[in-house]
Amino acid sequence: MSHISHAPHAHAPTSISRVMWLVIAALVPATLFSIWLNGWPALLLWLVTVGSAVFAEFFCLRLAQRPAAPVLADGSAVLTGWLLALSLPAWAPWWIGALGAIFAVVVVKQVFGGLGQNLFNPAMAARVMLLIAFPVELTTWVQPAPLFSADALSLSQSFALTFLGQMPSSFAALSGATTLGHIKTELTRDISVTQALAAHGQSMSASLFGLHGGSLGETAALLLAAGGLALIALRVITWHIPLAVLAGVALPALLLHANDPARYLDVTTHLLSGGLILGAFFIATDPVTSPGSPRGQLIFGFSVGLLTWLIRTYGGYPEAVAFAVILMNALTPVIDRYVRPRIYGHASKAASKKGAAS
Amino acid sequence: MVRWGVHPDARKQAASPQDIERLPLPAMLHIPLLQHSGAPAKPVVSVGQHVLKGELLGARQGNISAPVHAPTSGTVVAISDYPAPHPSGLGVLSISLEPDGEDRWIELTETDPFSLTPAQIAERVAAAGVVGMGGATFPSSVKMLLGKRSQVHTLLVNGSECEPYLSCDDRLMRERAAKIVEGIRIVLHAVGATKALCGIENNKPAAIEAMRHAAADFAAIEVIALPTRYPMGSDRQLIHVLTGQEVPSDGRSADVGVLVHNVGTLYAIQQAVRFGRPLISRVVTVAGGAVARPRNLDVLIGTPARLLVEHCGGLREPPARLLMGGPMMGLQLPSLDAPIIKGSSGILALGAHEIAQEQPSPCIRCGQCVSACPMNLMPFEMSAHIRIGDLDAVQGIKDCISCGSCSYVCPAHIPLSHYFDYAKGELTARERGKMRQESIRQLTSARKERLEREAREKAEAAARRKAERERAKAATAKEATS
Fold first, then answer.
1. Structural domain that includes position B236
2. CATH number (domain holding residue B116)
3. Is the pLDDT of residue B330 over 50?
4. pLDDT digits over A333-349, tens only?
5. Residue range A155-179, pLDDT digits in tens
6. Residue ranges of B 404-433 with Cβ closer than 8 A to chain A
7. How far from A8 is each of B160, B231, B410, CA to CA, in Å?
8. Which of A58, A131, A216, B377 is the most buried (most CB within 10 A)?
9. Which residues of A touch B8 (CB under 8 A)?
10. Which of residues 73-92 of B touch A (CB under 8 A)?
């Protein structure tokens, strides 16, 4: 025994890579479903995005002359790419995924110092960048054509679509807006929410089971929620942020919809569209960019939800989760500074400050 | 509801079912003169002197100190530095005693503890060298006197034994419950408290049963099953769970009217007060994956740890780590030559799979440490400040109880409690430096004042003399003219 070790001399059976891979595992069912729903192009886009994220991480680590293998094994780059892929339209061209993933890993994560140092959620920052820089590619949705169905693209057609941008002629007519995008457009034309929803022709069960157009991960609300609940059960995440996010959207939606159903969307539509479930369970819960104390997490989560609802209802973009998360990421250091647990044996906040100063 | 803490794998089953065994008399004992918090004891024997079992070897010096006694009869063969049971393995002044095999006691008389005054009880406890046996090793008599002064109303009996592997308190409660209960009654009598709450974690049903049975006749003593959660045995946490009260950050348990004693300490107090027996032995858990037959042993203070392990069948694999105490707060031992002291609750030889050591990776701010911290600190933030040397920005470092819960749960395997111990040492050193500077400043200004005063006095004296001379001169002139 050459070195002296400090207590504790036991450790919980956990590690960063266990945490990351468990989150990834929780995403698998929803991802498989989305790939089935959206066909081969979704799989290709997913592959390109995750691959680019891993490559970008490898590249940065080599540049920094750090050993790459252990860092890549922690799964954080895979998770970043994966979450980004799930937030993109399934039929987006390959370079959208690649560019987004490289931006997420290089600019948002590694430039700030790598794992644990980034201020913003890499996947969401990349999505916001893509949405602003390439609005057309990011808002072109198609009606899903499940794998092995009659309408489905063949593998070669999918390659042509994803890598060469060749949209098969039969599909041009099928492209349409997501529920939230549709409502937003119709509202500007003075068509009420009720009418717009009816005209959009999407049932609630379709939302629940994800049988509609949207981002890869936006569609399978039920499977995503199940994955998120599994993470809570495994204590990988706590319930605070997801619940607060959902409450932040549901409360104003409930109040205002009851008040004026023609102007404001109902709660269920809000909760089941626009990747809110993905955001609540998998993105807002990113530990690096969210507060550390339970109370701070509740404030953070509720604000993400409220901002999402505000942007959806009054803002220019129909889908708001990414913006809400980024805004609240920026406030996380402030929340962590002012919202902290009361230290045992200290009477109040003033007392704890005095204790730290003395 | 208890929200803090962690659930380490208890691993008590290997040692806890067997009865306490008495270790045979060793060939040599090394009794350190410092086994407690406070000043070391001063040796009062000389080399070559024959001593009886229980005879004083080292007398307490200073207010916070404890004496040490001969664990058996024999000859003092050396008074010199012997490696301390501490990671450094540095020497500490110890008395080496060669037993004569007779194990002959000094003369002892039995006394009824309840005929003694509180001051007499405290004096007996102090003379017997009883210290906190849960690991803090604070002299018990000092704590009792403090409790008496601050009018403590409740005695909390700590039988939680929340550290994994350890079962010495568990065994003690199962086998010697009546004596512990008498110890509780003695302390109640000595500090004037009216009530005793004995907290035992609910993973020790046999101990709870034994203590309830022993305390059945005494209405003042209540045995309470606690949730199993580390660090339940920490004073502040135990007080909160049992009484609902929080000890103020800069206060002591006595400030909320309670006094906490470990069950092992209460047993030692009973032995000291009723029989006059000094603290010369204790129950030690010998366990860990590398130990062939884990069990609890009744061991004389000063016995080398090696003999305990050999009595338990030796090591069945090379240990990855040797510890004194539990795995959460215990100290690493450089070797098994270290002697058992009053605070040694366990000797553990852990295998590699048990310590689960990994290279630290970056903090992902997951907040697991925040949920685990029993003091409601934010360890990840504190360690980030300490890492860059910004010790002034660290909030709550003085409240950290070094329980290790944060390090235990950290998925990044960051040695958080190690950071905090470093920061505490650094801050203490700084404070000491500041105090020294302050005293230098006071001395300098006092000297300046003194020099100024002396100069002023000199000048005044000179002026006075001059005035007198002038007056005298004027007087002579007057005389001359008249």
1. 107-284
2. 3.40.50.11540
3. yes
4. 999 999 988 999 887 65
5. 777 777 777 777 666 555 455 556 6
6. 404, 407-409, 411-413, 415, 417-418, 421
7. 18, 12, 11
8. A216
9. 10, 12
10. 87-88
